[in-house]
Write a structure and sequence with these properties.
- This protein folds into two domains: about 80 residues; about 180 residues, Ypt/Rab-GAP domain of gyp1p, domain 3 (Cyclin A, domain 1, Orthogonal Bundle), CATH 1.10.472.
- The chain is about 75% helix and about 0% strand.
- The protein is built from 15 helices and two strands.
- Strands 1-2 form a two-stranded antiparallel sheet.
- The termini are far apart.
Length: about 260
């Protein structure tokens, strides 16, 4: 009932906050995990206000832009919530393809989209992935980075660096595992078990952020720096088109090989 009370109060606040704004605060399952973590060391009132602070600081994860269309289908919070994480999950997909191409192909070959492995951790801001001291230190860095509009993209860097960290420390086992559910548990539970020093974890993430988002000047990095949703959507389309072309070319090669053998 405590979590229900917090989320009920949050929904009332969200309606009031969204009025006269071009965005809507929407619910996600990850809020339950966030509340559960907060309630382990603070009162429900404090947990409510921390959740409000997260929603206001991290609008990319908690809010969706209002659509100009009046049709209910376009404005349904349940549909919009799935759309709100689409860009972030697309970026994660691209980052893995760029930095861990062998792992990318292996995960694709197992039949599950890469988004399936990381959507829940991202929704819950990794509340169930690490111990409380690690999670709180991570949240401090994310919220501190999102404290003003100019640094919003830096908060996104912290969120996107963690999937790369998960793959980095588990890559050997991932490439030798062929069950998607086992890999998903490996990414979350095994990573959480290996991370026990918040300071070391933050330093490792900083190294990833520096190498991927700061020093690298790839197309993906330039898009992230611009932080433009339209560009991200175009990038998603380009990546999917490129994947389809590569897949078609691979099929043609396989067919030619089969014809030569036969």
């Amino acid at each position: 009932m405590t979590i229900y009370s917090i989320l009920r109060a949050f929904s009332i606040w969200a309606i009031m906050y969204s009025q006269n704004r071009n965005m809507t605060v929407v619910y996600s399952r990850g809020m339950i995990s966030i509340c559960q973590r907060l309630l382990t060391f603070m009162s429900k009132e404090d947990a409510f206000w921390v959740l409000v602070g997260m929603a206001k600081s991290l609008k990319r994860l908690f809010c969706v832009e209002n659509k100009p269309e009046d049709n209910y289908v376009h404005n349904c919070p349940l549909i919009s919530r799935k759309m709100s994480l689409k860009n972030e999950l697309t970026i994660i997909n691209c980052l893995i393809k760029v930095h861990y191409p062998e792992t990318f192909q292996h995960l694709k070959s197992l039949g599950m989209p890469l988004e399936w492995y990381f959507e829940w951790p991202l929704q819950s801001m990794y509340a169930e992935c690490f111990s409380s001291d690690v999670v709180l230190r991570l949240w401090d860095m994310i919220i501190l980075s999102a404290s003003n509009a100019e640094n919003q993209k830096r908060a996104l860097w912290w969120l996107l660096a963690i999937p790369l960290y998960m793959i980095k420390i588990n890559n050997f086992l991932i490439l030798r595992t062929h069950d998607p559910q086992t890999i998903k548990e490996l990414l979350v539970k095994a990573t959480g078990a290996m991370v026990y020093a918040p300071s070391d974890f933050i330093q490792d993430l900083l190294q990833i952020i520096k190498s991927v988002f700061v020093e690298s000047e790839s197309v993906l990095t330039r898009i992230l720096k611009n932080d433009d949703a339209n560009q991200l959507e175009k990038m998603r389309y380009d990546v999917e088109s490129a994947f389809l072309r590569d897949n078609h070319a691979s099929q043609e090669v396989s067919k030619k090989l089969a014809r030569d053998i036969l």
